[in-house]
Amino acid sequence: MELDKIKRILVVGAGTMGHAIAQVYATAGFEVDLVDLNQEVLDNALTKIKSNLSLLVEYKHVISGETSNILSRIHPSTDLKVAAQNCDLVLEAVSEDRDVKRDVFSQLDEFCSEDIILASNTSELNIFNVAKVKNPKRLVIHHWFHPPYIIPLVEIVAGRKTSSEVIDISFKLLEKIGKKPLILKKFTNAFVVNKIQQAINSAVFALLIKGIASPEEIDMAIKNTLGVRLPFAGVAQNLDFVGLDVVYDIIKNMGMDLVFLRDKVNNGQLGAKTSIGFYDYQGRTEEEILTKRDKLYLQMLDFLKQKNAFEPI
Ligand SMILES: NC(=O)c1ccc[n+]([C@@H]2O[C@H](COP(=O)([O-])OP(=O)(O)OC[C@H]3O[C@@H](n4cnc5c(N)ncnc54)[C@H](O)[C@@H]3O)[C@@H](O)[C@H]2O)c1
What secondary structure does DSSP assign to 75-109, as a single string? Predict the structure, then answer.
């Protein structure tokens, strides 16, 4: 198993995610077999890929003369066996259904050569319990985000038996095609981003059910706060700007205690105000840190206003 030997990717499932992931690999120069159950889905997938590519050309993310070369590298097929026998890596993007995925992985296990990586794009299933493969060292999750030709992150999630070599090659491959891979330290349901998204969704539903704010009001509130800060401060660094002592007081008022946070506060690691919190600001003063932050926030605010971002899409 070597990164440089990966030339041909098999994407199984040509739906919302599969067609677009196939497009990303083909854009990066890989030959891609795109397999689904019937020709109609595949035709639809190719129509969408052409439309995606023309948008990417318009926004200069793809060179205009490249479209036909990219399309020529995508090989739609309904024959999983043939495609599996010829590929160097599989990305499974079939429906989020245990039985469907189990069946696809058992076919892949039978048809693919034994050492190639079998990656699943599952959003939340513990694929390591679902898929039965002879060599579980090669089974891994590559969790892409929609739309995959725009959103940079891909979460790499290993099972207990996934080899470190598979994780390493996964990381390098995704980096090579221009993605931002994140290796999770262990399996957890919904991984990182969807776990945070789920917490947000739960809060939104609670606000709606209790009649506290309408959907439009919630979005207006979020766009006018998190929307401005998030691109620069993320969600963890923002706590450094609040002050970890303040955050800890809030947690205590909620009747909770977090040992790691208490330790930080007791050690004087309060965030920007002490030049160290979750992040290490390398001795920069609070004023230096916050001035840099505020310049970025101001630029973001101007940009968002210019784009009418505070209005619904
Ligand atoms: N939609 C998203 O935003 C999103 C984001 C990240 C991850 N995912 C995950 O990606 C996977 C695919 O999701 P999607 O949104 O593309 O679903 P989708 O329903 O749009 O596409 C699934 C495709 O799989 C095909 N399929 C089903 N059984 C098959 C088989 N045996 N062989 C070949 N093809 C088969 C279906 O015909 C369909 O075209 C799921 O695991 C999902 O959880 C989805």
Answer: EEES-HHHHHHH-SEEEE---S-HHHHHHHHHHHH
Low pLDDT (below 70) residues in the chain = none
pLDDT on residue 40: 97
Chain centroid to Cα 199, Å, comes to 17
CA of 103 to the centre of ligand 1 (A): 14
Q: What pLDDT was estimated at residue 186?
A: 87
Q: Can you read off the two tokens belonging to residue 50?
A: 């052409």
Q: How far apart are CA 104 and CA 127, in angstroms?
A: 12
Ligand 1 atom closest to 97 (CA): 41
What is the CA(95)–ligand 1 centre distance, in A? 4
Tokens of 60: 């200069």
Residue nearest to atom 15 of ligand 1 (CA): 16
- Locate CATH 3.40.50.720 in the chain: 3-183
Q: Which helix (H) or strand (E) holds 75?
A: strand 74-77
Region 213-306: CATH code: 1.10.1040
Fold of 3-183: Rossmann fold (3.40.50)
Question: Both tokens of residue 281?
Answer: 């600001």
Mutate to test the pocket of ligand 1, among 123, 145, 193 (most ligand atoms within 8 A of CB): 123
Which residue has its alpha carbon closest to ligand 1 atom 12?
93
- Rounded Cα distance between 97 and 95, Å, is 5
Residue 246: C-alpha distances to residues 239, 242, 265 (Å): 9, 7, 9
144 C-alpha to center of ligand 1: Å? Answer: 12
pLDDT score, position 224: 97
Q: What is the pLDDT of residue 194?
A: 95
DSSP 123: S
